[in-house]
Amino acid sequence: MSSPLAPQFAFAACQHGAEAVLKTDLAKRAPTWRPAFSRPGFVTFKNEQPVTKLDGFQLSSAFARTSGLSLGSVEGETPAELAAAVWQLPEVAAARATVRLIDWHVWQRDVVAPGERGFEPGPTPASQEAEAALRAAAPEDFPEVAPGPHVTPRNRWVLDVIVVEPNHWWVGCHYSASRPACWPGGVPPIELPEHAVSRAYLKMSEALWWSALPASRGEQVVELGCAPGGASQALLDAGLLVIGVDPARVAVELQENPLFQHVCRRVSEAPRSLFKEARWLTADMNVAPAYTLDAVESVVTQPGMHVRGMLLTLKLPEWQLVEELPNYLARIQSWGYRDVRVRQLAFNRQELCVAALRSRGQRRVQRESRRRPRQRADDRHSTPPKPLGE
Ligand SMILES: C[S@@+](CC[C@H](N)C(=O)[O-])C[C@H]1O[C@@H](n2cnc3c(N)ncnc32)[C@H](O)[C@@H]1O
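Above: inputs. Below: predicted complex with S-adenosylmethionine.
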């Protein structure tokens, strides 16, 4: 008979290099949780008291890709040895006796920053190997788990097995209460399609999926800072009509697309009359957040504009800019966007994504089958997508 689950540790995945900012953010939001074991891309925390209210537990931070309760860690020489040790952990037995684990997420902490040396977050050979070993050693009474990358349905308990080092795996569990909690390691299974002209395609696909932006096919979106055009392609693939503003050249694929209009100017020089029909706005400009917000404000607060929602990339050339985040979000709210969320997307680099809607009531439950972006067909990074630059 196993003892009841009352974990005192939690784990979170973050971008490689964002550990310090995650710890600082959580020190403000959840001060009873103190940083413990940590490696780039993976941080654990210890609470003053064991957690007794398990349902819905998460470490809430824009920098936590995913999080959960920690069940301990195992060491070993081979994946088979490590997998056997996972299933033998008393804490895993306690978790199975306390909550109904029906799935597993096996993932590796990021080894470099997204977009660096061709790396993109997602399944890796090491996580694939670990998953195969975990499956081979799984107890017979563990529910059947679909092979390959998958999205867990909402509101299920999931076992997390994290490859921290090849010979050191961390083990935890979480409840899939949010959209990112349904994705292994908080990384949506999205592939960069052949036709994408920049990796910003991944970023925009993830932003659309995470935010569940309630845009309908045929509606118009303005993209500020659109060149060379990967994000615009993701918007076009989602069925939107795109007006892209950027003084730089857009890729020929975009120039030839009749559903895309390039306004080859800086935002300050673009005639506002062009944007009158736009219902959505996205921005991804390589300038400081205050300038991005100046440009966005100058468009959405124009008389006659009816922008219902926005997806904004805020660049963080220095991590200290995070301290200004509450001011940035308050500024966006002051334009009439009351539902403002922020997240460092898995495919973001040193930047954040802000999703802003006029009201929370605009959010809609996504019909996953219709609105989900193109998923990875390959389930490992044997041939990582070529970095095309942003
Ligand atoms: C990170 S890139 C955008 C990537 C693009 N979203 C894509 O999908 O490929 C940043 C862009 O912002 C543009 N930019 C910077 N300042 C701008 C301004 N004031 N008005 C319009 N575009 C601007 C730059 O020319 C550059 O092409």
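Residues 366-371, 376-390 have pLDDT under 50 and may be disordered.
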